[in-house]
């Protein structure tokens, strides 16, 4: 079962096999002795199916069903899949038993193919497990703890010499982080150890706690790939990363980055349990100057909130395509379900309002990177709004547009690339 969950489905043989089978099924359905009745029926099925798929796409955008505008590519996949489904449905009539079986199989397969295609376009769920919100267990071994984890007197890159047997790339895997204080039930976190963390005498390194989107998974593929690239250029140095689950359960509910009786203590889990676990289990520098809170989409909103609320823990933040405030998709439901109807508490939880209410100089010395895709207007506006306030209150901010990106994987990798370009010298991992 674990093997199936970890099966790659982006730019992989499995993806192309799915596409190939869909093509074979489509050709099989089309290859019939043509009669006027069959041709007419097939055309009706294809046209009506495509219209249904296109309508579903348009209605989803008008109703803001997913919290973001779905790109045209999603509409194309939807129309194509439903066109195939329409053809398969009309093929059930006036046909041999074997063709009925092929048609029934095609209905399911065309939908699966569209899901795989749309997922590949977004580039966010690299394997079968993440596509369905399941984190496949792949425990990563953690090196023994070193004694000296205080802030270094000099930048790390000036005192570090990589040994000859250092791995070329880092390792990633999973770790269960219990909700010891919060009681929050989270899925296993992803942990990334850069090459420098895997040697016999590793240095203490900066740490990043990251959160992904809703609905999404605590999957560390994108950030670890980005950091492997940085490590290759900087003698194996990069932060240690925890991709934590801020959603809990099966990932289908949104706690809005807060503690609540409805969804559990998500905020305490990330800001206390995950923080405590990191200190107790990882060779990280125990100093807020070397701690970064990061997130994408829903997780980006959480990162902005936690950076604003807990500057004593996190002196750096990377907010990639983040919400302007947690719960922005459905504020009325969040006020009711998370804040018990207390609109004032909800307003006070917004990152911009937290920063405005903080004493002067609270954020001086902090570094914030805010990014979004140039083709993702609502989240780009959110990045601008939060970064503007962060700059106003004294944070050293960078606002970055990922050219040509929407709300998918390209925005994530592009935003993280820029974020670590800014942070590596701040964290002492490079000279600039």
Report the total helices: 15
CATH architecture of the largest domain: 3-Layer(aba) Sandwich
Biggest sheet record: 8 strands, mixed
Sheet with most strands: strand arrangement: 1-2-4-3-7-8-9-10
List keywords for this structure.
15 helices; alpha/beta; 432 residues; 2 domains; two-stranded antiparallel ribbon; Rossmann fold
Task: Please render the helix and strand layout as text.
Layout: H1 2-5, H2 13-30, H3 36-62, H4 72-90, H5 97-122, H6 128-131, H7 156-159, E1 171-175, E2 189-193, E3 207-211, H8 221-233, E4 240-244, E5 259-260, E6 264-265, H9 266-281, E7 291-296, H10 298-309, E8 316-320, H11 331-337, H12 343-348, H13 351-357, E9 367-373, H14 377-392, E10 396-402, H15 409-426
Parallel strand pairs: 3-4, 3-7, 7-8, 8-9, 9-10
Antiparallel strand pairs: 1-2, 2-4, 5-6
Notes on the structure:
The chain is of the alpha/beta class. It folds into two domains: 121 residues, no CATH class; 290 residues, 3-Layer(aba) Sandwich (Rossmann fold), CATH 3.40.50.1820. It is built from 15 helices and ten strands. The longest helix has 27 residues. The mean pLDDT is 94.
Summarize the structure.
The chain is of the alpha/beta class and 432 residues long. The protein has helices spanning 2-5, 13-30, 36-62, 72-90, 97-122, 128-131, 156-159, 221-233, 266-281, 298-309, 331-337, 343-348, 351-357, 377-392, 409-426; strands at residues 171-175, 189-193, 207-211, 240-244, 259-260, 264-265, 291-296, 316-320, 367-373, 396-402.
């Amino acid at each position: 079962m674990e093997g199936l969950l970890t099966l790659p489905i982006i730019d992989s043989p499995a993806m192309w096999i799915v596409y190939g089978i869909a093509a074979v099924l489509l050709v099989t359905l089309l290859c019939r002795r043509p009669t006027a009745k069959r041709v007419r029926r097939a055309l009706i099925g294809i046209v009506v199916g495509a219209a249904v798929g296109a309508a579903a796409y348009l209605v989803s955008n008008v109703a803001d069903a997913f919290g973001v505008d779905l790109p045209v590519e999603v509409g194309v996949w939807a129309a194509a899949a439903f066109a195939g489904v329409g053809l398969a449905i009309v093929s059930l009539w006036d046909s041999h038993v074997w063709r009925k079986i092929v048609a029934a199989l095609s209905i399911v397969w065309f939908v699966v193919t569209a899901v795989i295609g749309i997922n590949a376009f977004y580039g966010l769920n690299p394997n079968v497990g993440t596509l369905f919100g399941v984190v496949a267990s792949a425990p990563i071994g953690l090196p023994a703890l070193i004694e000296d984890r205080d802030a270094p007197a000099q930048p790390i890159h000036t005192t570090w010499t990589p040994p000859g047997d250092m791995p070329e790339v880092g390792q990633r895997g999973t770790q269960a982080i219990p909700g010891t204080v919060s009681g929050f039930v989270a899925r296993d976190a992803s942990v990334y150890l850069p090459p420098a963390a895997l040697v016999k005498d590793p240095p203490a390194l900066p740490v990043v706690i990251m959160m992904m989107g809703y609905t999404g998974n605590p999957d560390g593929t994108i950030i670890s790939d980005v950091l492997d690239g940085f490590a290759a250029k900087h003698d194996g140095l990069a932060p240690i990363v925890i991709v934590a689950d801020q959603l809990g359960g099966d990932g289908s509910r949104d706690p809005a980055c807060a503690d609540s009786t409805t969804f559990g203590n998500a905020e305490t889990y990330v800001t206390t349990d995950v923080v405590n676990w990191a200190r107790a289990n990882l060779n990280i520098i125990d100093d807020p100057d070397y701690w970064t809170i990061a997130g994408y989409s829903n997780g980006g909103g959480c990162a902005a909130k936690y950076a604003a609320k807990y500057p004593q823990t996190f002196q750096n933040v990377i907010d990639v395509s983040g919400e302007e405030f947690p719960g922005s998709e459905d504020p009325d439901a969040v006020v009711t379900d998370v804040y018990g109807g207390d609109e004032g508490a909800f307003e006070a939880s917004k990152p911009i309002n937290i920063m405005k209410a903080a004493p002067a100089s609270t954020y001086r010395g902090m570094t914030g990177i805010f990014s979004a895709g140039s083709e993702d207007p609502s989240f780009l506006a959110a990045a601008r709004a939060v970064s503007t306030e962060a700059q106003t209150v004294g944070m050293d901010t960078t606002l970055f547009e990922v050219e040509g990106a929407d709300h998918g994987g390209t925005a994530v990798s592009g935003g993280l690339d820029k974020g670590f370009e800014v942070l590596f010298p701040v964290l002492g991992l490079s000279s600039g």
